UniProtKB/TrEMBL annotation, chain A:
It comes from the Bacteria. Residues 35-128 form the Histidine kinase/HSP90-like ATPase domain. Keywords: Kinase, Transferase. Coiled coil: none annotated. One of its GO terms (molecular function) is kinase activity. This is Serine/threonine-protein kinase RsbT.
Length: 133, 336
């Protein structure tokens, strides 16, 4: 885990910047085009959640290694209202983006690892990892 | 992540065959691939990727703009792929719920099971069929030591699991009443208080309670807003509605129930039912209660059990084998 790059999310347009960075980064790490597209979609969902519900936050990227395999670690951080009922937002069919997005369950499906911590009134941190196959 | 990789060389060969010949057999094979892919949970984007790779294999110098367009298509399909996965997971979850309900339905059958009385001089038939898996109708026979039999027919307004849960409560409340407590009006009054205190106000229960005395050939009864039954007079071959006044259970804790009594004569029948019988539908049309009586009459020469089953089968067929409401019918015939 060397240095970490973050993209700030404030405007809807920033979502595109985060996607672009994530796609280039995952390409460099050796992901194929399907996984690149999946990673970009996961970044979109995370960044949209920040934009829609927290107002501002950032998406950070790291390279991770684990017994010979390489992967991408993406952390979404915000200081928004937090999530009251995490089980509920992780339920299929309960989509937070007005029924249009894949929601957090979608992010979980797109990635290999998924971890979320959230405190009401303090913010949310979501950490996801995908390994190069 | 994918259970099985698509066979790229097979796909490429088929694609080439189709591009060269536009042969239907290649398309048939494509259909097989599609079905196998669904079976093996191969994602939508994986199939498009295979297509792109196959295309590049056949045309090594595929124009760049076409390659870009394929990447664009791949991107568009990612969310569809996700939606499909979600759909598959939800379908599995639904199957789990279904199997849980069928276990609950079996439990309900055991919990609410009752034994049809066998009394000299009378012939009794019972049929009770739920519209869905769980039955919101309830009937029960209580065999008293003095030879009298308590008969309950009830219907929860509403169907399915909430109704079934409610019925289990009713049964255990009734069992907790002391055994000398068997007057229909008293029983309904006690039960009304139990329902009023314990059941959600949006839920109502109608009940007909009868105390049948085979030795004296009498029946006394009270009703809590339940669908009226019918009395068949063999002497002049007519039906009479068994009217009984009383408010549905659970509305007010001070409800009082009037008790009625009648004598049963040779060849006569007592018909108790729920609104699933009288409100059978043929297409969009509710049948008239005269039709129910006519059907009962047409089978009345049969033993009571065959009689109720024949009536049920008649209305099951009339409704295209799809019950809209739980169906319960009890007929007591006095031997001639």
């Amino acid at each position: 885990m060397d240095f970490r790059t973050c993209v700030n999310i404030q405007k809807e347009w920033d979502i595109v910047g985060a996607r672009q960075f994530g796609r280039d980064f995952s390409k460099k790490l050796g992901f194929g085009i399907v996984d690149q597209a999946r990673i970009a979609t996961a970044i979109s969902e995370l960044a949209r959640n920040i934009y829609l519900y927290a107002g501002s936050g950032k998406i950070c990227f790291d390279e991770v290694e684990n017994v010979g395999s390489r992967g991408i670690c993406i952390v979404s951080l915000d200081t928004g209202p937090g999530i009251k009922d995490i089980s509920q937002v992780m339920e299929d069919g309960f989509s937070t983006s007005g029924g249009l997005g894949a929601g957090l369950p979608g992010v979980k499906r797109l990635m290999d690892e998924f971890d979320i911590t959230s405190k009401e009134g303090e913010g949310t941190e979501i950490r996801v990892v995908k390994w190069v196959r | 992540m994918d259970a099985l990789k698509l066979d790229l060389s097979h796909y490429r060969q088929l694609l080439k065959q189709y591009i060269d010949t536009q042969d239907e057999s290649a398309l048939y094979e494509a259909e097989q691939i599609s079905k196998r892919s669904i079976q093996h949970n191969i994602s939508l984007e994986e199939i498009i990727n295979t297509h792109i790779n196959a295309l590049e294999g056949i045309y090594p110098d595929l124009p760049e703009n076409i390659q870009h367009s394929m990447s664009f298509l791949l991107e568009v399909m990612i969310s569809y792929g996700l939606a499909l996965q979600e759909f598959q997971d939800l379908r599995e979850a639904q199957l789990e719920i279904k199997s849980e309900i069928s276990v609950a339905a079996r439990m309900q059958n055991t919990l609410l099971s009752t034994v049809k009385p066998d009394v000299d001089g009378f012939d009794i038939g019972v049929v009770s069929v739920p519209a869905n898996q769980m039955n919101g109708d309830y009937h029960h026979f209580i065999h008293h030591a003095d030879g009298t039999v308590g008969i309950t027919v009830a219907d929860v307004i509403g169907k399915g699991i909430p109704a079934a849960l409610c019925m289990s409560m009713i049964k255990y409340a009734m069992e907790s009443f002391p055994s000398e407590h068997k007057n229909p009006s008293e029983i309904l009054e006690s039960l009304n208080r139990v329902v009023e205190r314990n059941v959600d106000p949006s839920m109502f229960i109608t009940m007909f309670y009868a105390l049948f005395n085979p030795a004296a050939s009498t029946i006394s009864y009270s009703s809590a807003g339940h669908e009226p039954g019918f009395y068949y007079h063999a002497a002049d071959d007519t039906f009479e509605e068994i009217r009984a006044k009383g408010v549905v259970l659970g509305v007010t804790d001070t409800a009082q129930y009037r008790q009625y009594e009648r004598e049963i004569h040779a060849g006569d029948m007592i018909i108790l039912l729920t609104d699933g019988v009288t409100e059978c539908r043929q297409g969009d049309r509710f049948i008239e209660s005269e039709e129910v009586l006519e059907v009962i009459k047409s089978f009345s020469h049969l033993p009571a059990q065959e009689l109720v089953e024949s009536v049920y089968r008649h209305f099951e067929k009339l409704q295209d084998f799809h019950l809209r409401d739980d169906f319960t019918l009890i007929i007591i015939k006095k031997d001639v």
